[in-house]
Specification:
111 residues; mainly alpha; 59% helix; elongated
Length: 111
């Protein structure tokens, strides 16, 4: 079964294998930076690029989540405008909220 896109969790959780792979990648690149290249700043560049890619992925997931929410809102509004009671999403009922303004005072319609 392929993973769902975009993931429902925000931020998406890394699997155990992904965490192990990421840890191994960091250790190997740190060892490379110290032993072979002799430049610790190289490691920070590699880690910075990796973190940038991850943050870009989180941004993409967030945008897809917003698009999904906007599509659901548009579908609900279209269904309500067409008069489809079965598919329209009704706002939740709040007890005692009818006839009141945002601040909770009476709007004057009931007098």
């Amino acid at each position: 079964m392929p993973p769902e896109f975009p993931p429902q969790q925000s931020p998406p959780r890394l699997s155990r294998n992904a965490k192990i792979g990421l840890g191994a990648f960091l250790v190997v690149t740190l060892a490379y930076s110290f032993v072979i290249a002799g430049q610790i700043l190289l490691w920070f560049v590699i880690v910075g690029v990796t973190a940038g890619i991850y943050l870009t992925w989180l941004l993409v997931v967030a945008v897809f989540g917003m698009v999904d929410a906007f599509e659901r809102i548009a579908d609900a509004m279209e269904a309500r405008n067409r008069g489809d009671v079965d598919t329209a999403v009704e706002p939740p009922d709040v007890e005692g909220a009818e006839g009141r303004d945002v601040d909770g005072t009476d709007s004057g319609e009931d007098t």
